[in-house]
Amino acid sequence: MINQKIILIQKTARRIHNTLRLLAGQHNFLPLSQFLLGALLFLIALEQIKKKDSRIGFI
Which parts pass through the membrane (predicted)? Predict the structure, then answer.
């Protein structure tokens, strides 16, 4: 179940990244899109950890 969610998040992140690359059409934009993608994945990971911890009862 968790692996399926991770795979879905990775596919979604790749789609977002590819869309940003197509919209930008410039190589200068690539570092910005990579940063935004990384920030998005970081936030998603934090939310997943919060959910897991709240079920266990640590936080």
Answer: 29-46
